[in-house]
Structure formats: structure tokens, C-alpha cells
Amino acid sequence: MDRIFFSNSGTEAIEGCLKLARLYSRPADSPITAANPKHRILAIENSFHGRTFGAVSITATEKYRLPFSPLVPGVDFVKFNDVADLESKFDKNVCAVVLETIQGEGGIYPVSEAFWNRARALTSQHDALLIADEIQCGLGRTGRYFAYQKFSSRPDLVAVAKPLAAGLPLGAILATDAVASRVSPGVHGTTFGGGPMICAVSLEFLNILEKTKILSNAAARGTEIRGGIQKLAAKYPFIKEVRGEGLMIGVELTVDGTPFVAEAMKRGLLINCTHEFTLRLLPAFIIGANQVREFLGIFEEVLGHVSKSMPATETARHAVHTAAR
Q1: What are the residues whose beta carbons fall under 8 Å from the beta carbon of 196, sequence distance 6 or more?
Q2: Average pLDDT rounded to a whole number, residues 289-298
Q3: 186-212: per-residue pLDDT in tens?
Q4: Which superfamily does CATH assign the domain made up of 214-324 to?
Q5: Which residues, including other chains, have CB under 8 Å from residue 36's CB and lie 6 or more apart?
Q6: H-run or E-run covering 42
Q7: Under CATH, what is the fold of the domain 3-211?
């Protein structure tokens, strides 16, 4: 990527990407007051992009959207990894396709290579933008600087944030020159984004990422965690699937994940449950092999304790969920 614009958060970076997509789609010589038919944005079902107005408009989950309806017009949702649905909803008035390279809040679902390639081909063919939301999956979490680097083509815009300043508030939009060249002074701005103190912290984080073995550690420890949980799945059949890359891991259950989160917290282990059935694991980049073993031990204790106390209704629900999936 060629150019960067700093924001204070990931959701602000997404807002900027949406503005840039609309700006890029407008003919350079068109009056600023003229309507622009090329304004449609395709987002993905099960997505999460943030809580500000534009970001929540491209977030598929209804519980985030409905309280604020009507939202930004011109947004349609494509079935996840469904190339045919993408093709059917793409037309000449689409200005951008926006996706999480790996869905985070949605349950740790990686975008397939076929879907990415088709989205890239369609946007290139129609002079639209491919926007990668790498706020959660980018900057080392998968064992690569960016999750999209597993594909042969790159996006036009990338939104990053979470680890960028080691937990302090900083987000960024990464852009190609073709997109950045459309920006003129005053078109977009921020008061605090890119402040010198916060960027000094970010530079230190990036230097550490480059000079140490953190990326390879993320990949190796992630493999150990997924392998350990796969072994536990043989003992606890309500573990349906283990997904993810590097230190971005989803453990899909066939029972409600909430009790597992509560029991883990009692034992000093912080995990998250998303979409009711998926335990989401996002360990620190610097986790070591000994800590992985410690985690797997505690996690097995949690699984065993909660499974013994599952009511009969939960057992029946397990059977229903298994059949439905």
C-alpha cells in the first residue's frame, strides 16, 4: 500500500474507507452537487465493522443495526463466501465491496480464496474498490502482517487499528496511490489522529514486530492451541469445529457458550463468546509455549466442569444444533 491516513480507532478508519469509496466513484469532473449513481456498497452477511453510523450500516448483525434504523442507504449484504450471490448483487453502480479477511465478531470465519479473487476481479473490472477490514485480523494476529497476504492480489483500501499502538487509540487507512490521489485538502480530516506521542508508540510496536520473532511465534502458538483443542474435541463431543489462523481462533460449540465464559473467568482465564455458540480466543502475540500448555489445562477443566452441570434441556439443544448444522 502507498499512502496512509491516521484515525483514532478502527471504526473511524472504516468511516474513512466508505467516504473514499464514494469519493473515488464520483467522476473527477462532475459537479459536487450532482447525484452519483455509482454509490452502492456490498458488505458481507455475519460481518461486524464498528458502531459509528456508517460502520454499523455495513454491519450485518441486526442487534447492532435495528436500534438506529434507517441507516445509510445503498448497502446490500452478500452471503458469506457465496460467489454466485456476489455476482448476482454486483452491478455497475457498486462503488465498493467491503469485507473482513477473517470475520471476528462473526465467529472467526476466513474469507475463501475463490470469494476474494472474484471480489477482486469484479471490483477491478468495474473500477470499484475492494476494502479489507483488518482491524482484528491484521498486524500480526494471523502470523502475517496482514491476513490478506495469503492471497495473490491486494485490496485498494485496508482498515487497521487494534494492535497498531499496542492498545492505545490509533487506527489507520492504508490506500493505493490511485485512491489517495482523489483526496484534496479538507475532504477528510481528524483532530487527534496521528498525534506524535501515539505514533511513537506505534513505531516502537512495528519495530518490535519486525526485529523479533513475534510473527512466527503467533503462527506456532496458534497451531499448538488449535491442535490441543482438537484433541479435547475427541473427549467433549459438543466441540463442533475449531477455526482460525495464528492467534485468532474460534471454537464452535453445539451448546450455549456463555457458561464456559463465566467458568473460565472464575479460573482466571478470559475468553469471549460470540453468536451464542462460538468461543473466541485472541491471545497476546507474545504468548509462550508454557502459557499455551497452561491455557489448555485450564480450558479442559472448564469444559469438564460445565459439561457435568449441563441441564437436560441443554443436551437436547446440543442434538438440535448438531442436526441443524
Answers
A1: none
A2: 98
A3: 889 999 999 999 999 999 999 999 999
A4: Aspartate Aminotransferase, domain 1 (3.90.1150.10)
A5: 22, 25, 26, 30
A6: strand 40-44
A7: Aspartate Aminotransferase; domain 2 (3.40.640)
Q: Would you place residue 316 in the very low, low, confident or very high pLDDT band (cuts 50, 70, 90)? A: very low
C-beta atoms surrounding 152 within 10 Å? 9
DSSP state of 279: E
Which H helix or E strand runs over 298?
helix 289-308
Residue type (1 letter), 200: A
- For residue 250, the SS3 value is strand
Dihedral (CA of 321, 257, 146, 127) sign: positive
Question: How far apart, in whole angstroms, are the C-alpha atoms of residue 231 and residue 184?
Answer: 55
Helix (H, G, I), strand (E, B) or coil at 80: coil
Domains 3-211 and 214-324 fall in the same CATH topology: no
What's the confidence (pLDDT) of residue 317? 54
DSSP state of 150: G
Residue 291 pLDDT > 90: yes
Q: With H, G, I as helix, E, B as strand and everything else as coil, classify residue 46.
A: coil
The one-letter code for the residue type at 168 is L
Residue 68 pLDDT grade (very low, low, confident, very high; cuts 50, 70, 90): very high
Angle 135-181-178 from CA coordinates, rounded to 5°:
70
Place of cell 483514532: 8
Helix (H, G, I), strand (E, B) or coil at 285: coil
Cα(64)–Cα(50) distance, integer angstroms: 9
Domain ranges of the chain: 3-211, 214-324
Tell which phi-psi region holds residue 135, choosing left (phi > 0), alpha (psi between -120 and 50) or beta. Answer: alpha
Own/partner contacts of 315-323, CB < 8 Å, gap of 24 or more, are 317/254, 317/255, 317/256, 318/238, 318/254, 318/255, 321/254, 321/255, 321/277, 322/240, 322/254
